[in-house]
Design a protein that fits this description.
This protein is mostly helical. The chain is 51% helix and 11% strand. The longest helix is centred in the first third of the chain and has 31 residues. The relative contact order is 0.15.
Amino acid sequence: MIRFFDFLFSLIGLIFLSPLMALIFLIGLFENGSPLFIQSRVGYNLKSFSLIKFRTMPKGVRSAGTHLIKNIKFTLFGSFLRRTKIDEIPQLLNVFLGDMSLVGPRPCLFNQSTLIKERKKRKVFKARPGITGLAQILGINMRTPKLLAKTDQKMIKEMNLYNYFYYIFKTIFKIIS
């Protein structure tokens, strides 16, 4: 049932937000020549998939978690995209294609070995990665891999339609406020 809502909401979102996405794409094209950021991430059952976001940093920044990069430099428009979470909108295509869910553990990079080890122990990779989830609502990020994996595990164990919608609405409320 959750996959049905993922498909439906991502399709509606892609259609409804397509004018905004086209505008951001054009601005990014003029700003840095490369408006999309596509990166290999760890997905369902530890399989690789290509995560799509709007580019917020200049081309050539090393492929690492943002929390591991010192002196992060965002593009002029990229800082706005990151602050408002608009850079995440292209992930609706990942949800539509089935690589991700709207709700699930945030997908990590293959070089985040501590987090991967902690998530493997807790069978977190048995769920599709998501755009949002319990950890995002609680402000837990990849700086604390063990706590993040435990939180992801708790969310997966308690996942049902009520919690699915709760996490989505809680995230929207958090972004707006």
